[in-house]
Design brief:
The protein is α/β, with parallel strands linked by helices. The protein has a single domain, classed as Glycoside hydrolase/deacetylase (TIM Barrel). The protein contains 9 helices and 10 strands. The strands form 3 sheets. Strands 1, 4, 5, 6, 7 and 10 form a 6-stranded parallel sheet that branches. The protein is globular. Bound molecules: zinc ion. The site of zinc ion has 6 residues, from strand 5.
Length: about 280
């Protein structure tokens, strides 16, 4: 009998579990690609990235992707039709969704980053400016304040915010799962991060991504009351005309994604992940 690579009685590592889940995921995506034609589902697909080209100390989920792979993905978005790249910030306009009911059926894609990694300024921004792709960086304010070498400093945040096509949003004050916070802590997380970021960059901050994808109706309503008008979740799906602007689905891209998988994710072959409940970041 062939070995499955996991011996009875030995502990299964987090890395092995991730590998098995990905193998199952790839099989489901290939099956989806076979059963549908390869045209993308129309709608607004929001890509979720974290770090690019950085070697992170603990990265079992592959949230830091290679610079070469990222550049290739952005060239696909910028240079190939029928994809249209839009700013996450622009999704405040209902027309980006409303036109989907009309004649226009092409896929729209917005690019976002979570956490506020330093490489978003030094590795990501040069590629995006060259290809004229707008992007949004959701920053956890305490990561900036704590001075970790992985994350943007205050001056780097200001520099990034001043670049063309860049929008800064909030990713909470301390990266807590917001659905687990009491009302007072929830309000503080939403207000503190927004006020800090606004002061640092000198611009209004009205976009949010929920840390760990942790959101429920109470959190969504608190975000609206705190002044946010757009928010991204970690629910993997495309957004159509009926989507709540404070509950926008996003599609995570990770280091293990080949060009083939990236194209499958754009086309909707990985949208079965909408049923998954937990998210790493
Ligand atoms: Zn995060």
């Amino acid at each position: 009998m062939a070995s499955l690579g996991i011996q009875c009685g030995s502990p299964v590592s987090r890395q092995e579990i991730v590998s098995w889940k990905r193998a199952i995921g790839r099989a489901l995506a290939e099956a989806s690609a076979l059963t549908r034609n390869n045209r993308p589902r129309p709608g607004v697909r929001i890509l979720m990235y974290h770090a690019v080209g950085s070697r992170l100390a603990d990265d079992p989920y592959g949230i830091s992707i290679s610079l070469q792979g990222f550049r290739q993905q952005m060239e696909i978005l910028a240079l190939e039709q029928p994809t249209q790249v839009v700013s996450f910030d622009a999704l405040q306009s209902a027309s980006y969704f409303g036109q989907l009911h009309g004649q226009e059926k092409r896929l729209r894609v917005a690019v976002t980053f979570d956490d506020g990694y330093k490489d978003n300024l030094f590795a990501v921004a040069p590629i995006m400016i060259k290809l004229q792709i707008p992007f949004t960086v959701f920053v956890t304010s305490s990561f900036i304040q704590n001075g970790s070498s992985d994350y943007l400093s205050a001056s780097e945040l200001s520099e990034l915010a001043a670049l063309p096509g860049v929008t800064i949003g909030s990713h909470g004050a301390t990266h807590r799962p917001l659905a687990k916070c009491d009302d007072a802590t929830l309000r503080w997380e939403l207000d503190e991060s927004r006020h800090y970021l606004q002061e640092m960059i000198g611009k209004s901050v009205t976009a949010l991504s929920y840390p760990h994808g942790s959101v429920d109706e109470r959190v969504r309503d608190a975000a609206r009351q705190a002044g946010y008008v757009l928010a991204g979740t970690s629910c993997f799906d495309i957004n159509g005309a009926s989507h709540d602007p404070l509950m926008l689905c996003r599609c995570e891209i990770v280091a293990q994604d080949s060009e083939r998988v990236f194209r499958q994710k754009l086309n909707g072959n990985w949208d079965w992940k909408r049923w998954r409940a937990s998210f790493p970041a």
